[in-house]
Design brief:
Blueprint: H1 25-38, E1 46-52, E2 58-64, E3 67-69, E4 72-78, H2 82-89, E5 92-99, E6 104-114, H3 117-124, H4 129-137, H5 147-161, E7 171-185, E8 193-199, E9 209-213
Helix pairs in contact: 4-5
């Protein structure tokens, strides 16, 4: 039997150095994301979102990135879910992408805000019909008696809204505004490459980034 402590992997696919990396972390992220998509890694758009509740207990879950630009990283969810409630009490969060096949990790930290109603409406109406009905049918993070509750809710809202369900008031987008990025590239002998970009506090409005290497 293989013991979990004996599992090993040698990381030797690529390197990450200061000369070859972008000075702007968003450009570095975009390059890596495009490379993950081109490499056809499973769900390259999947990211872990970490939040902290008022009792200081952290929690994580996997969501899908739906947009990014100079304003930040966007995803959509139920505002009444556990993560929504935790973000309402503590707007700071962390994201993580792990592209195993490329031996890469991206970590992003910052403050989270809701996107505009217009942005949420536009994205909601671009979704498949069953996903739009699902946003109404699932009381996310609440205890339910069984799967039948979801099926019944979906049938009820499907009959009510037919082909044009409106966006639920409890559903919409979040945008994390980064103030810290970390890019990790696996290397041989556990001497991994790890670059950090932190927002210069003296120039937050201009988004000047300080790039530095961290010990792995």
């Amino acid at each position: 039997m293989t013991h979990i402590a004996d599992l090993r992997k040698s990381y030797e696919r690529a390197e990450l150095n200061e000369d070859a990396s972008h000075a702007d972390p968003l450009q570095q992220f975009e390059q890596w994301l495009k490379e993950a998509i081109s490499a056809e890694v499973p769900e390259p758009n999947a990211m872990t979102v970490a939040t902290v509740a008022s009792n200081l207990r952290p929690s994580t879950r996997v969501v899908l990135i739906k947009g990014y630009d100079t304003r930040g990283i966007v995803w959509y969810t139920n505002y009444e879910s556990r993560k929504g409630q935790e973000l309402a009490g503590n707007p700071f969060a962390a994201l993580q992408f792990h592209w195993v096949e490329l031996e890469r990790v991206v970590r992003i930290e910052g403050v989270v805000e809701k996107v505009s109603d217009e942005e949420s409406d536009t994205y909601f109406h671009s979704r498949p019909l069953d996903s739009r009905i699902g946003a109404w049918a699932s009381p996310q993070s609440q205890v339910i008696s069984g799967r039948g509750v979801l099926i019944a809710n979906a049938a009820r809202y499907g009959a009510q809204f037919l082909l044009n369900p409106p966006r639920p008031p409890h559903w919409g987008g979040y945008r994390l505004k980064p103030d810290n990025w970390q890019f990790w590239q696996g290397r041989k002998s556990r001497l991994h490459d790890r670059l950090q970009y932190r927002l210069d506090p003296a120039s937050a409005s201009a988004q000047r980034w300080i790039r530095e290497r961290l010990a792995p």
